[in-house]
Amino acid sequence: MFIILSVVILCINYLLYNTLYILIVYFSSIFCLLFLVYMKISIAFATLSGNTEKIAYELEKFLLNKSYDVDLLNLENTKVDELKKYDLVFLGCSTYGDGDLNLIMDIFLSEAEQICHLCESTKFAIFSLGDSIYPNFAIAGEIVEDKIINMGGEVIHPYIKIDGYPSSEVFEEIKKWTLEVLKFF
Ligand SMILES: Cc1cc2nc3c(=O)[nH]c(=O)nc-3n(C[C@H](O)[C@H](O)[C@H](O)COP(=O)(O)O)c2cc1C
After folding, report:
1. Which of 37, 59, 140, 182 could be disulfide-bonded to 95 (CB atoms 3.0-4.6 Å)?
2. Distance 110 CA to ligand 1 centre (A)
3. What is the Cα 138 distance to its own chain's centre?
4. pLDDT single digits (tens) 6-55
5. Distance 180 CA to ligand 1 centre (A)
């Protein structure tokens, strides 16, 4: 009798344990899925000759294919406050002059610094275009990163330097980097 009772209790325990395990897996999958659906991403870019825009556009396609909710923003027509509604912002910039920011990004960040509340709850990842023939290759990314951090923003992954004209190799490189960035969510 005692043995039968023990076996029954063991079986019930086993079933309960399995059910609990299945429920945990089920609810955590639903939670992850909901988070993916509700996480808002923007790709905000500043470009002078269109290269950063091309990368931004590819990045948008890549993220849309992965079912993320993504907006593409040209910083020329974007108000600083608009960035606050996003959980993650991919900021695209390019390098000019003697290792300076392109003018559009420079103006945008100066406005952000004046208001000084760009991004407390937004996370950032920066892609920076340049040309390795210049001594300050793609240094714009470093300038943007420093400014964002000084404004209290969080840069979740080191910026990527993109060399020259956008090509299929460049697109592959940026996709790999994007997957790394997304691991932080
Ligand atoms: C006048 C001029 C200055 C540039 N200066 C730099 C530089 O200092 N460092 C760098 O890495 N790239 C430099 N570049 C290359 C640009 O950053 C590169 O072409 C980039 O892809 C341009 O992106 P955009 O079309 O989105 O503005 C310069 C390009 C031009 C035309």
Report:
1. 140
2. 20
3. 19
4. 777 777 777 777 788 777 777 666 665 565 557 999 999 999 999 999 99
5. 26
